[in-house]
Write a structure and sequence with these properties.
Elements: H1 3-19, H2 27-32, H3 40-54, H4 56-67, H5 73-93, H6 101-121, H7 127-133, H8 141-153, H9 161-170, H10 176-185, H11 187-198, H12 208-234, H13 236-256
């Protein structure tokens, strides 16, 4: 396969696996793109910068408010989730032991199944939730802790960071849109941790080849995040069902093949 095409497909598949309940380092990615590991670093940088760009206005507002001495709940959530990710993930990243790809895929499928069941168990109309929806939802320190622990443990194998964090936010009763948003907003801490775990990296070929992987992951991430958020806002049950069924299908295909 042409190197440029591999870079393009690597960025595409890493973006898809990053924002659905999959892992960019799972078996499905290696099957789709044989040499994808050569472009993991620029692809991870692409999805990371996509988050910063997507939420640039919100991040800027939170930082400006923080400089005024106002520390909003979202800022605390992001900060402590990143802190817990580093405190747990850095020691675990030095271990030689890790979960196998097959076990990780089964765990991802289980997380997806729980998300689907949770979405189907939620009534179509709930007057109490509709009333709660009019109130502002704010993440807590416990949400930061759960997100940080999940992201830190995620370095042990190709586990779904997005699916597990989203599930952890859905369980307390947050809306689908908020759960997805907050899951996406803390993702850079995990991606940076993974980049740290990779260590040194040498680009393959001319500079525009890895840049292709970066750009592909960046733009696909922007589109996918927007689509998931929009669908979750308009059709929460459909969004969560489609979101959760992806790792189930992937696991079934891996078992069959």
């Amino acid at each position: 396969m042409d190197t440029l095409v591999e870079a393009l497909l690597s960025g595409l598949t890493v973006a898809l696996a990053s924002w659905f309940p999959l892992s960019p380092e799972g078996e499905v990615v290696s099957v789709l793109v044989g040499n994808y590991q050569s472009f993991l670093v620029p692809a991870y940088l692409g999805v990371t910068f996509a988050v910063f760009f997507r939420y640039r206005e919100r991040f800027s507002r939170l930082l400006i408010e923080a400089m005024k001495g106002i520390y909003e709940a979202e800022l605390k959530y992001i900060f402590f989730a990143a802190l817990f990710t580093a405190l747990i993930g850095l020691p675990l990243s030095k271990l030689s032991w890790g979960l196998s790809a097959k076990i990780s895929s089964a765990v991802n499928a289980l997380i997806g199944a729980l998300i689907v069941l949770l979405s189907l168990a939620t009534p179509r109309r709930n007057p109490i939730r509709e009333l709660d929806g009019k109130l502002s939802e704010e993440p807590s320190i416990l949400d930061s802790l759960s997100a940080g622990v999940i992201q830190g443990v995620g370095v042990l194998g190709p586990l779904t960071r997005t699916g597990a964090v989203t599930l952890a936010l859905l369980l307390p009763g947050y809306s689908a849109r908020k759960a997805l948003q907050w899951s996406f907003m803390v993702a850079p801490a995990y991606f940076i941790l993974r980049l740290f775990q990779f260590g040194s990296w040498e680009p393959e070929g001319p500079v525009w080849v890895p840049f292709t992987a970066f750009a592909s992951a960046f733009f696909v991430s922007l589109v996918l995040i927007y689509l998931l958020e929009s669908l979750a806002e308009k059709r929460a049950r459909l969004a969560l069902t489609a979101f959760g069924i992806v790792p189930i299908i992937v696991f079934a295909l891996e078992v069959i093949v």
